[in-house]
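Sample A.
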Amino acid sequence: MAYQRPPFNPDSLTAARLATGLSRAAVAEQLGVSRSRVHAWERGDNAPLPRHLTALAKVLGITPTSLVEGSSLRSRRYAAGLTQAEASTAVGVDRAEWSRWESGLRIPHRHADAVERLVGG
């Protein structure tokens, strides 16, 4: 399967950072990443790893979902700070099954509650 860019919204990051009055360097320091990495996120050149997304939202005093585009299963997983592997393990399925759900396959009823608890709905 081809790489899919995370559903990250760089404009939301820039707006939130400016609203807090923090510099890129200050955000980077709190996250333990380089200032150039934060700048690349704001330009949309790349996106934060899931674990950085949740920390970034905390630093900015916003919810992770405000940095994410859409409300798909993929977007909700990313906003929860989880990789596909972490999400699939938490629900008790293999990563390929989770990937199929993110591609639009209906989540079986027996897993629906666990997915809802993990990433919301």
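Sample B.
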Amino acid sequence: MYNSFYGWYFKCQSDTQTLAVIPAVHSIGRKRTCSIQIITGNDAWAVEFSAESFHRTRKNIFIEKNRFGEKGIRLSIYTPNLIIRGKLDFGPLSSLKYDIMGPFALVPFMECRHSVWSMRHSVRGNVFINGQKYSFQNACGYWEGDSGRSFPKEYIWTQCCFSGGALMLSVADIPMAGIHFTGIIGVILWQGKEYRIATYLGARVQIQNKMVRVKQGNLELEARLLKASERILKAPSKGNMVRTIHESASCRAFYRFRKKGCTLFAFETGRASFEFEYASNEY
């Protein structure tokens, strides 16, 4: 049997609070389980469920009484150590012009495939986690997904919504047909325009001291992790959720985006999300 995983990642963020939710299903041989992971600026939890509780349609994932999709999130989790309830409604999604994987979307047997469902949308509602209220009124949301066998051995991922736009960038070690190469996918939404940077468009990367700089033609995006706020998450390795990764759902970072040598935006923020899973400081 094929070892695999499939999961969605929802990030909801107000001026003062951050909540990320990850529903997923994982298969190891004939064994199939599912889970919901929750991460905030202060903590993280993982709850496992039976495979029978998972159901997916094109637009929704259901795990017991929890629902996730383009209209929003409904949470109902009751365990001895964790009680979560609430609902978040999404406004219109900001989808991409075409698949973030580009031509690699057609390549079979890739270790991990990425998808971006919405770069930015409004979020409204409340969620209670062990009695603490997370309130989102005209807040910002982001939605992506992953599927395949395993997360990349080494990778960097960052995402941020900001005034006038949003961005996401992923740089990863990609194994394919017995070789390895550095794969880059990224999107910048700025003042209503979508900029795509990717390996399949000629992007090249420099990684050094918690900084990643990607250049592609006359475009340049720099993302620098300034102060992490790492929480532990589980990630798939050959379908099994046994790998430990560290995500800063809301941390301090610097971003700069340039076109033809002119800076379109440059800012420091305390509302960035970052995963820096590269072992070396220089690449």
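B remarks: The chain is about 0% helix and 70% strand. The mean pLDDT is 93.
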